[in-house]
Amino acid sequence: MGIVKKRRYQMESIDEPLEVIVRGTDVLNEPLLNKGTAFTEEERDALGLRGLVPPKVVDIEEQVVRVLENYRRKTDPLEKFIFLTSLHDRNETLYYKVLTENLMEMTPIVYTPVVGAACQQFGHIYRKNRGMYISLNDKGRIREMFDNWNQDEIDIIVISDGSRILGLGDLGANGMGIPIGKLALYVAGGGVYPCKTLPVLLDTGTNNQELLDDPLYLGLHQKRGDDVEYYEMVDEFVKAVQDRWPKALIQWEDFTNDHAFPILNKYRDEVLCFNDDIQGTGAVALSGLLGGMRMKGEKLADQRIIFYGAGSAAVGIADMIVAGIVEESGMSEEDARKLFWLLDSQGLVVHDGPRPLQDHKVPYARHEELIPDLLDVIKQVKPTILVGVSGQGQTFTEDVVKEMLNYSDQPIIFALSNPTTKSECTAEQAYRWTDGKAIFASGSPFDPVRMGGKIYVPGQGNNMFIFPGVGLGAALCQASKVTDAMFYTAAKTLAEMVTEEELSLRTVYPDLRKIRKISATIAVGICEMAFASGLAGIEEPEDIREFVESKMFHPEYPRYVAATE
Description:
The chain has 565 residues and is of the alpha/beta class. The protein folds into three domains: 62-255, Malic enzyme, N-terminal domain (Rossmann fold, 3-Layer(aba) Sandwich); 279-461, Rossmann fold, CATH 3.40.50.720; 467-550, Malic enzyme, N-terminal domain (Rossmann fold), CATH 3.40.50. It contains 24 helices and 17 strands. The strands form four sheets. A seven-stranded mixed sheet has the order 10-9-8-11-12-13-16, sandwiched between helices. A five-stranded parallel sheet has the order 3-5-4-6-7, sandwiched between helices. The radius of gyration is 24 Å and the shape is globular. The two termini are 14 Å apart.
């Protein structure tokens, strides 16, 4: 029987009564313990709750009805976000019950696209702390600070420095909304226990003058510092995590390209970590393309691929597709990269361009003349696939999309930039401009399109399809590192879970409502790879699927009894 000590506890099972030392309002004020009106008569007596809650004892299902009634009264998306945040802050089990059962409706609220607006307004809608903030003022004290966090076991840490939030740029400490949102999806979609998650914001300042001028901005009111101090802070953070929570997986989130690649490359073989913008985005995009190949009856090795955008997401996706081509065809990596043309703000990425190439672009730079315009690049390359990761809305114009029809009967057009306002084109535009021939996916959700008596269901290349399963699997088997091969396995697994019926609707991703099954299946694959390659830190169980599913969190109230000290 687990013992819940004052402000230090782990809730991992509802099979046995949980002994609770805290009483009265302390129980009601702790989101992980609070059951609100669902406390039984016996629990109310045992925990000193008699008179502190209304007399009627209700079950969690009735509470869900009440939450949904109030949630659906609200018409403004940001107000819906604030409402769910308030629920999260007072009753975590109920929050995840509501979220898990209404993922299609609420994922766009708790994550993209509404989380972007919430981050922009973070200091103005701030209610209660969630997670940890590490600033330059804390240098040399990070390990000491981690003792302030009241959980001794952490499986997943999501950290951002707020420097490149979605397609919104530098939001500084306001970027904390991203780690919080990602971890909510880990719990709802991947079954990670909420008490074993930790959102972290690394605050090294912001170069966003609007925030610096905002008196309600809650981060450091200073410009970002130099790289030497920055990397020292990152290194101190990593070492502190390894000491305080040695089994924790670190997910790097929304870092600018100049920091994202060096951080990932430094720690990927030493620490259990990954960068979701690079590896997760790459895997989910590859999965969508594999679905597109099923739809077209073609091979990746036969495609010509243009990327509009050449940042971390673009290179992460390209690297993952290269791995897929190599696996599928036996082609060398060097030859596979010749199927790619990347464009940045200057135009086609070439070796002899107007400015020095960033390291991550070099493998995809062409020995060709610089072409500044996307449409002109398309006319020269004659691509079959166009991927948008530019953060520039409405850049896939009608001329651009229609030009793709000259080179493929079913051109693949992925407009992956977030949030919706940054999408290179909408689903309706892609379908109407191609008479329904395009195979379309986006980063943010779009509604189904009715056209010519048919319904077209656009796929959303949501990283939620990938990262919860990868993180869950790596954490459960206590892997020593996360490899690119694991992400490739996750991409293939996801693509195989798209049904023929879903493909007939022109969608390349499975129904998001199956996310827990998807995450469990991916986690099983990650565990199998870790055991086979000697990367797992535990003994291999007889049945890996049963092991994974038995460790997944389900939002149900435990039974409480008063602890005897």
